[in-house]
């Protein structure tokens, strides 16, 4: 087992096109969102296991001895990830004092950690390692940005690396490295088990994006990575208007049942938008008439935003977002469930800092959270401390010192 | 020939659904707009023919003798309307001093009058009748509201009635009457010839709506009247933003060529909206769950407005119109060519006067013209002077006195 402190990170995800339509058998494009979750893992010899989740004000610590029950409860093979059984989940809940049916973020994060820690460690050891884990995320939780998947991916990558089930690639000074393809496969599979604990029946899209980054196509339950995807600058805005994904999905279904010949074609149009977007992203990578390609991306965003309003998942907060950015000639759409939640605004490579700042200011003035970031970037990564952005590095150091 | 003064009126038209999509073989619904054109015709014995068009500051008067050339130029059969030949048009232009290629409203209105007057009168007489005609319209011209068709319909109805080619139904005191079906057919056919002189290659939709009122379905060049249509209250708003129908139509075609699989389904969805609207109008007439039917009409308006934006014929002036009325829970869409021009806002039977007033005020404050009126009402009609709304009656009297 490695004795170094490791820092890993995984991106969030946004749906670029195809939200809701995907429920009705159409193509969706999911892309990595470079708001990342960082996990620092340090192996220690104090006989304790600690997990610190400052975003949700949670820090738990157990005697390793108290966790020994995991070895008998979880009979896992590290190379063949499998989901927690109901019986295992019940035992983990009982141990952590989480009542049945308790599905708050904190409870689910703890259950996810205990299962992945137990399954990945127990499968290759007779005794459980002592460690301190610190997870900090740039992603808001519950906003449809794949924060739970980023957490699961980081946990899987860190635990698998820590117990040497996968290699520990050495980042150069100031560097960031990634794992080999088969190791990413393993990380993704364990992360998916974590996601199942948290979400019950996840699509697997979020953990795949968290693991591989870039973009993927999701269609009829199948996940297909896109080979050629540029990194695109965006504004990611959280309107903070709460919504129920379930209610929104049901609303679209009702509308489709009410007006099949009106709404059906819209879903087909959204499908075609995803496909056109895929072609356009490939054209940008190939360097074909970039200016024109960006204009197409903008047009697709505008069209889809109209379609999403038509199928009933718009919201006045999102209309205001679109209007505010349109004043700066920027194009926005909701991403994910809609009905509030988050929106993305495409920035061109040459969009000036003053336009970006003015747009952010306008969105902040409306009470929204807004990040300038990018999509389509790398997936789960291992960082040398010096390779981290200074603010992230300082934050992790400060949080470590507080432990 | 009747020796009374006759007053006839014909409605304008709006496209309820299907504008632009109709160009691509989809269904459009056109309905009568109760902003009307009024024509007062008085036969006299002063040997003169006068036409007064105060909306366009035009009043022309000729000696009947000077118009005798029409008898030889136009060899028409009143029961078999036919279009003016190029040679006839040339002679009319020459007579009226309208240079070739001159297509301003005034020139076209005069040509239309001369042709209909000549053709309808000449076909049944050896000498031309002396008359004074006054036409006044509530319809703005060039706004896609069928003002030229309402003018042609009024001219045809008045001239045919004046020379007894069709009966002169006697309106009761305070009454309004209409012609028999075969007479309406004849009025419509002559009005269509007038429209051809003005527009070159009209669809025939506008004059059909002006003649029969109500609503009609237009599909693949065929005009089918709808049997069951309620009168709906609306606001008709003219943003007064000028636009080129030709450019807008070409833009939709370009967009369809650029993104066939994205835009094609939208046109199908618009087609389905027209059909659903037709069903819903019939349900309202049948008295089926009116509340629900109005909610459907509102939903169709919202969806179509999004679609019209998607196909590129929206405009910020129309967005503002929709937003302003949405603040009062009213639903609006553009009507006709888009890119500015006019919009319609549906009012429910129970929409309160205060909501209507507030909406009108908001729209006026934006610099738009706004009328509270209705759609689906009656077509060309003959009025007793006392049956006219007092303001129309006073206006016609005042304008007559000025002649």
From TrEMBL, chains A, B:
A single BP term in Gene Ontology: isopentenyl diphosphate biosynthetic process, mevalonate pathway
Subcellular localization: Cytoplasm; Peroxisome
InterPro entries cross-referenced by the UniProt entry: GHMP_kinase_C_dom, GHMP_kinase_C_sf, GHMP_kinase_N_dom, GHMP_knse_ATP-bd_CS, Mev_gal_kin, Ribosomal_Su5_D2-typ_SF, Ribsml_uS5_D2-typ_fold_subgr
Needed co-factor(s): Mg(2+)
Catalytic activity: (R)-mevalonate + ATP = (R)-5-phosphomevalonate + ADP + H(+)
Domain GHMP kinase N-terminal, residue spans: 115-210
Example GO molecular function: mevalonate kinase activity
EC number: 2.7.1.36
Segments forming domain GHMP kinase C-terminal: 294-358
Keyword Transferase appears in the UniProt entry: yes
Gene3D superfamilies: 3.30.230.10, GHMP kinase, C-terminal domain
Main location: cytoplasm
Record-stated family: Belongs to the GHMP kinase family. Mevalonate kinase subfamily.
Protein task: Catalyzes the phosphorylation of mevalonate to mevalonate 5-phosphate, a key step in isoprenoid and cholesterol biosynthesis.
Quaternary structure annotation from Swiss-Prot or TrEMBL: Homodimer.
Official protein name in the record: Mevalonate kinase
């Amino acid at each position: 087992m490695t004795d170094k402190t490791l820092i890993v990170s995984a991106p969030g995800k946004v749906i670029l096109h195809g939200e809701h339509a995907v429920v009705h058998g159409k193509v969706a494009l999911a892309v990595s969102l470079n708001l990342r979750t960082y996990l620092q893992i340090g192996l220690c010899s104090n006989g304790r296991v600690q997990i610190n989740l400052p975003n949700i004000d949670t820090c738990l610590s157990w005697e390793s001895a108290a966790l020994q029950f995991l070895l008998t409860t979880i009979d896992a093979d590290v190379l063949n990830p499998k989901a927690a059984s109901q019986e295992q989940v019940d035992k983990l809940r009982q141990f952590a004092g989480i009542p049945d049916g308790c599905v708050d973020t904190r409870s689910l994060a703890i259950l996810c950690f205990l299962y992945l820690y137990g399954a990945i460690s127990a499968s290759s050891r007779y005794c459980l390692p002592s460690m301190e884990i610190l997870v900090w995320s740039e992603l808001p939780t519950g906003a449809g940005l794949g924060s739970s998947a980023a957490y699961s991916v980081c946990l899987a990558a860190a635990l698998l690396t820590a117990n040497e089930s996968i290699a520990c690639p050495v980042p150069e000074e100031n560097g960031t490295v990634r794992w080999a393809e088969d190791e990413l496969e393993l990380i993704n599979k364990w992360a998916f088990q974590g996601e199942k604990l948290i979400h019950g029946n996840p699509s697997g899209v979020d953990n795949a994006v968290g693991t591989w980054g870039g973009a993927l196509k999701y269609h009829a339950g199948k996940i297909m990575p896109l080979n050629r995807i540029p990194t695109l600058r965006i504004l990611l805005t959280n309107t903070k208007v709460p919504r129920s994904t379930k209610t929104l999905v049901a609303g679209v279904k009702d509308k489709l049942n009410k007006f099949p010949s009106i709404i059906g074609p819209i879903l087909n149009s959204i499908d075609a938008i995803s496909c056109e977007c895929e072609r356009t992203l490939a054209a940008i990578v190939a360097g074909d008439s970039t200016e024109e390609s960006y204009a197409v991306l903008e047009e697709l965003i505008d069209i889809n935003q109209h379609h999403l309003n038509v199928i009933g998942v718009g919201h006045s907060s999102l209309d205001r977002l679109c209007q505010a950015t349109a004043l700066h000639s920027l194009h926005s759409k909701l991403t994910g469930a809609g009905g509030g939640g988050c929106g993305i605004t495409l920035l061109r490579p040459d969009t000036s800092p003053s336009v970006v700042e003015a747009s952010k200011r306008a969105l902040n003035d409306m009470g929204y959270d807004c990040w300038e970031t990018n999509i389509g970037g790398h997936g789960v990564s291992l960082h040398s401390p010096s390779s981290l952005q200074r603010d992230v590095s300082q934050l992790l150091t400060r949080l470590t010192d507080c432990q």
